[in-house]
Amino acid sequence: MVERASALEGHNAPRRFGLIPPSGPGIRLSERPVLGIWLAAAWPDRLAETGAAAAAAAGADAAPGPGQSATGRRGTLLRIEPLKWLLISEDDIPTPSLAEADGTVLELGHARTVIHVSGPSAADLMARLVPLDLRPGTFPEGSVASTRMHQMGVTILARDGGYDLFCLRSFGLAAWTLIGEVAAQFGAEVV
């Protein structure tokens, strides 16, 4: 197996920066270690079958609906588009089993960077980066959205009291740098 290289290597060393208030940093940044990322795409008339196969691959009871996620024994399944799910895992997982007549599966583990943003000011930071209301009252834990962040496409998952941002690996460092520049006003810590 090919070793995965981080797009953020050399840039994500633990440190504090920006205007750190007495209460501590308002933002915590880290790269989420995700080894398995699979895209399951359904043919329009085979949505139920593809969803069931994706849920089985994640070890979840059922496939999530639009804008939602479901966590199972082997991974988390995100409904990212009307006919697509993203299966993510911190472990290297096998190729999801999907009949050719139902849809297609694509491995994306090497093609994505996952940045985790958390802390008491995380929702305020995200309000400055994306055109969505990601406050916990409107975007609760497990919610999923695909949007733009300063001309970069990102998928956002509300997870672990913060947000996972999935971006193309080639934009990983640009996204990390942008988030860091905006986070400095809240005081930030890379963990």
List the helices and strands and how they pair.
Elements: E1 15-17, E2 27-31, E3 36-42, H1 47-58, E4 69-71, E5 76-81, E6 84-89, E7 103-107, E8 112-118, H2 122-129, E9 144-149, E10 152-159, E11 162-168, H3 172-183, E12 188-190
Parallel strand pairs: 2-12
Antiparallel strand pairs: 1-12, 2-8, 3-6, 3-7, 4-5, 5-6, 8-11, 9-10, 10-11
What descriptive keywords fit this protein?
about 190 residues, alpha+beta, Gyrase A, domain 2, Alpha-Beta Plaits, 2 domains, 7-stranded mixed β-sheet, 5-stranded antiparallel β-sheet, 12 strands, about 15% helix, globular
What would a concise description of this structure say?
The protein is α+β, with helices and mostly antiparallel strands and 191 residues long.
State the fourth-level CATH superfamily of the largest domain: Probable tRNA modification gtpase trme, domain 1
> What's the arrangement of strands in the largest beta sheet?
1-12-2-8-11-10-9
Q: How large is the radius of gyration?
A: 17 Å
Morphology call: globular
User: How many beta-strand elements?
Assistant: 12
| SSE arrangement, N to C | EEEHEEEEEHEEEHE
Reported for the largest beta sheet, the result is:
7 strands, mixed
Low-confidence segments, ≥5 residues, pLDDT <50? Answer: none
Average pLDDT, rounded to a whole number, is 95
Structure classification = alpha+beta
**Helix count?**
3
**Distance between termini?**
28 Å
The percentage of residues in β strands lies in: 25-35%
Number of domains: 2
The CATH topology label of the largest domain is Gyrase A, domain 2
Name of the level-1 CATH class of the largest domain:
Alpha Beta
DSSP helix fraction? 10-25%
CATH architecture of the largest domain: 2-Layer Sandwich
